[in-house]
Write a structure and sequence with these properties.
- The protein is α/β, with parallel strands linked by helices.
- The protein contains 5 helices and 5 strands.
- A 5-stranded parallel beta sheet has the order 2-1-3-4-5, with helices on both faces.
- Helix 2 packs parallel to helix 3 and helix 3 packs parallel to helix 4.
- It is globular and about 30 Å long.
Length: about 130
């Protein structure tokens, strides 16, 4: 697939295993391109500025700032940024605050491969997931 038609993704999670799993899933899809990985809020902001991804997968629990605060900071600088929250808990109260901060979707980290791909494509198309 031509580079201009690929969906560029930033993965933000402080667990190496989660980031590696996301990278493995994305590597099998011809229209998805993992452009960067971050494990802190500070890294996420720097890499978002540098790469301007189409979609960001954002862990809600980061070691330096919450993913919610990181989402707010990205949205302030890049209004309309497409961010999908990653959470470990179904029914997590943080998701409501994340929606207020500007996320466009929510994924449980345990979701199967097809759901992750579908969420990315749905949010990239301008819809909520």
């Amino acid at each position: 697939m031509e580079p201009e038609h690929r969906i560029r993704i930033l993965s933000v999670d402080d667990h190496d295993l989660v980031r590696k799993g996301i990278a493995a899933i994305l590597s099998t899809e011809p229209d998805l391109d993992l452009v960067a990985e971050a494990n802190t809020s500070e890294e996420a902001l720097r890499l978002h500025r540098e790469h301007r991804p189409d979609v960001t997968l954002m862990d809600l629990r980061l070691p330096d700032k919450s993913g919610i605060e990181t989402t707010r900071l990205i949205q302030q600088e890049f209004p309309g940024a497409k961010i999908i929250a990653l959470t470990s808990y179904d029914g997590d109260q943080d998701i409501y605050r994340a929606l207020e901060a500007g996320v466009r979707g929510n994924l449980l980290k345990e979701m199967v491969h097809n759901e992750v791909i579908r969420a990315i494509r749905t949010v990239h198309a301008g819809k909520r997931f």
